[in-house]
Amino acid sequence: MSTKYKTHNQDGIYFISIATVEWVDVFTRREYCEIIVDSLRYCIEHKGLVLHAWVIMPNHHHLIASSTDDKPLAAILRDFKKFTATKLLTAIHENPQESRKRWLQWIFESNGRRNPNNTHQQFWQHSNHPIELDTILLMGQKLGYLHQNPVEAGFVEEASHWIYSSAADYAGGKGWLPLVLLE
């Protein structure tokens, strides 16, 4: 078993990438993004997640996060992914406006069948690729990368204009989620 991408240091701050299977674009609808935002808020308020920065892109999201002393970050992420997968799969299934419903369900079901750990569907890729941000330089690089992701993708001109991001918080505004800003 690989130990390269693990949250070994419970006091550490980590850059985390969470992607959909097949990199399928799901977060093109506001209601799906809001499931992620609401779930992050719940994890902050009830599970010990400390969120420093975040961005939701169409097929993945990045977090810079840590956890309180009594809650391992890996356990919080596991619970977050399990809950959001169930909630998102249900939202897709029940959304009468979802024109890609059959195609998305086929992708999630085919990935679930290939994975012996799943019983039906798989929404998220397994690894979060946590990278410990143990230097100021690395922290600054990952924070810049995270916030510039929507700009580099051509979605917005300014990072703070992407509403599903903490870039507005770092630009002096008020975003969606309570953060502990990096200095």
Tags for this model:
183 residues, alpha+beta, Alpha-Beta Plaits, four-stranded antiparallel sheet, 4 strands, 40% helix, RAYT_transposase, Transposase_17, sequence-specific DNA binding, transposase activity, Transposase
Write the layout of secondary structure elements.
Blueprint: E1 14-19, H1 30-47, E2 49-56, E3 60-67, H2 73-94, H3 101-113, E4 131-132, H4 136-152, H5 167-170
Antiparallel strand pairs: 1-3, 1-4, 2-3
Helix pairs in contact: 1-2
Structure description:
The protein is of the alpha+beta class. It has one domain (14-96, 123-170): Alpha-Beta Plaits, CATH 3.30.70.1290. Helix content is 40%, strand content 13%. It is built from 5 helices and 4 strands; from the N terminus they run E-H-E-E-H-H-E-H-H. The chain has helices at residues 30-47, 73-94, 101-113, 136-152, 167-170, and strands at residues 14-19, 49-56, 60-67, 131-132. The protein has a 4-stranded antiparallel beta sheet with strand order 2-3-1-4, sandwiched between helices. Helix 1 (30-47) packs antiparallel against helix 2. Residues 9-149 form the Transposase IS200-like domain. One of its GO terms (biological process) is DNA transposition. InterPro entries: RAYT_transposase, Transposase_17, Transposase_17_sf.
How would you briefly describe this protein structure?
Residues 9-149 form the Transposase IS200-like domain. The chain has 183 residues and is of the alpha+beta class.
